[in-house]
Here is the input.
Amino acid sequence: LFVYMAIGYGLRKGKILKAEARDAFTEFVILVTLPCMIFESFQITLTVETLQKGLLSLFVASSVEVLSLIISNVAFRFCKKDEIPIMRYGTLVSNSGFAGLPVIENGYGLDGLFYASLYIIPTRILMWSAGISLITTAPRWERIKRVLFNPGIIAVELGLLRMLFEPDLPLVAVSAIHALGECTTPLAMIIVGMILAEIPLKNFLSGKALLLSAIRQLFMPLVLLLSLRGLHIDPLLTAVATILTG
Here is the structure.
């Protein structure tokens, strides 16, 4: 994963690829490869145990988002007024879909990716409702539409239908979906590297960035990890939830 990031960093730092290329890659991942990866994760047999763990994944994710809302409302009262929206947004919304899912797929396979695909649903809903309201204004229906027609959510819905009814998809479609989904991990990490190349090094070491990182990448995952282990939750689900929370 770090090799992919280094490639993206080098391509952007060396001005081989422009910012427009990064934006195009990002759209391609969000609209095509990531939904394909999510859809393929539902290529498993539906059992009572699978259903229970899937619902548990949704419950854990929803609990984390409630914690995120609480923290975002109290943790940044001392920030400057113009910093509050982006700081609160960073607390509310993790990068669980774009960067998190490739990490899960790379480390835990289809089983982990199945739980991860359900886990990101509450995050996506919060991102396009409370999250987006912090940094822009949009009519309520526009926000609802962004939630309902988010490519990741649509992929989950289609994946659930596939798992329930087990249709015989054409082999060419299955092969294409698999191949496109496999592109997600390298492309997503290359994009992350390109983004890092555009950020001055001093920004990584600013007090606000370190505070946000400490809360989002350390405090929240650690609290969740200790809680799930204390409750003896399935180790795979615990790992997936902890990684995506961070």
